[in-house]
Design a protein that fits this description.
Elements: H1 16-22, H2 32-49, E1 56-60, H3 63-74, E2 80-85, H4 88-99, E3 103-108, H5 117-126, E4 131-135, H6 147-156, E5 160-164, E6 183-187, E7 198-203, H7 205-212, H8 225-233, H9 244-260, H10 262-282, E8 286-287, E9 299-300, H11 303-316
Parallel strand pairs: 2-3, 2-4, 4-5, 5-6
Antiparallel strand pairs: 1-7, 6-7, 8-9
Helix pairs in contact: 1-9, 2-9, 5-6
Length: 319
């Protein structure tokens, strides 16, 4: 069977070793074998986030499940939240916070425009907020937000910062500990190049303190990060049956990533992105993002070019 060329943000094409892992014989999720493999997955994930193993959570689900887990666990009813919206997924972040009772103030930017950290500073001077919600790279338009600068502002005002790194983790520089983020989450199917189905979360010590000192009970079972932190300490604890083949394949994908070298992969993404952007602009096409990302390039094609491109892709990837 011929593999299709996936010219989308994710899922991405898989290495043969990752595909092979999906076909391994099934094992029990409470077995010593899976405990050993899952523990290694946690170490590899911590290395990816540049944090310690005790600060990462991996559970079955998509990046959106990571997003909801962060909000459900750390946002309480009537908490004031500042949502920085540069596209569709920024708005999704705000909507989930509202579902859990947050009072959300939206800073909405025109499509293609990135967050201005000065706007964040101005908003924090006018009102008090529990948390800031921001997307690192917006999938829908390729906008690359300067989340490290937003984090500096958040720390200055004592505000938690939640970062959606679904389209950046493994493909763009991200230093969880050094830049002072509180919660970050990603899915397995994009820059990591694993199958969809694993949510990878990082949580700071400061966020853990907020988690322990909530005024109210967390209104979720599966999205309760307090429960999942206990499972991460002892993966033999039964909370929910994991997608064993997906997690094993994700472990292999992360081993390949670290074999290449995280910084090398960041550099490769940036080099490839520059070549793509150069080619598109030479064709006379306009890039959507004012600050383009190294992982997603979005151009305004127009209907005739888009139809021809779709036709070409379909012909070249028939299987």
């Amino acid at each position: 069977m011929r593999s299709p060329l996936l010219m989308i943000p994710g899922p991405t094409n898989l290495d043969p070793q990752v595909l092979e892992a999906l076909s391994w014989p099934s094992i029990g999720h409470t077995s010593p074998e899976f405990h050993e493999e899952f523990t290694e997955l946690l170490y590899l994930t911590a290395k990816l986030y540049k944090t310690k193993k005790e600060n990462v959570i991996v559970y079955s689900g998509s990046g959106t499940l990571g997003m909801e887990g962060a909000v459900a666990s750390l946002i309480e009813p009537d908490d004031k939240v500042l949502a920085l919206i540069t596209g569709y997924f920024g708005e999704r972040f705000a909507e989930i916070a509202e579902i859990y009772g947050a009072k959300v103030k939206r800073l909405v930017y025109p499509s293609g425009h990135d967050v201005n950290p000065e706007d964040v500073k101005e908003a924090l001077e006018k009102d008090e907020y529990k948390a800031i919600l921001v997307t690192h790279i917006e999938t829908t338009n390729g906008v690359y937000n300067r989340v490290e600068e937003v984090a500096k502002v958040a720390r200055r005002y004592g505000v938690l910062i939640f970062v959606d790194v679904v389209s950046s983790l493994g493909g763009a520089p991200f230093y969880f500990d050094n830049d002072g983020y509180d919660v970050a989450f990603a899915g397995s199917q994009k820059c990591i190049a694993a199958p969809p189905g694993a949510a990878l979360i990082a949580i700071s010590d400061r966020a853990k303190e907020f988690l322990e000192n909530r005024r109210t009970e967390i209104k979720s079972y599966y999205f309760n990060l307090k429960r999942w932190l206990k499972v991460m300490k002892n993966p033999r604890i039964y909370l929910a049956t994991p997608t064993i083949p997906i997690l094993r394949a994700t472990k292999i994908a992360l081993k390949l990533l670290h074999k290449e070298g995280l910084e090398n992969r960041w550099r490769r993404h940036e080099q490839m992105a520059k070549l793509v952007r150069k080619g598109l602009t030479e064709l006379g096409l306009e890039l959507k993002a004012r600050r383009s990302s190294p992982t997603i390039t979005v151009a305004k094609l127009g209907k005739p070019i888009a139809e021809k491109l779709q036709e070409y892709v379909l012909k070249s990837t028939t299987y």
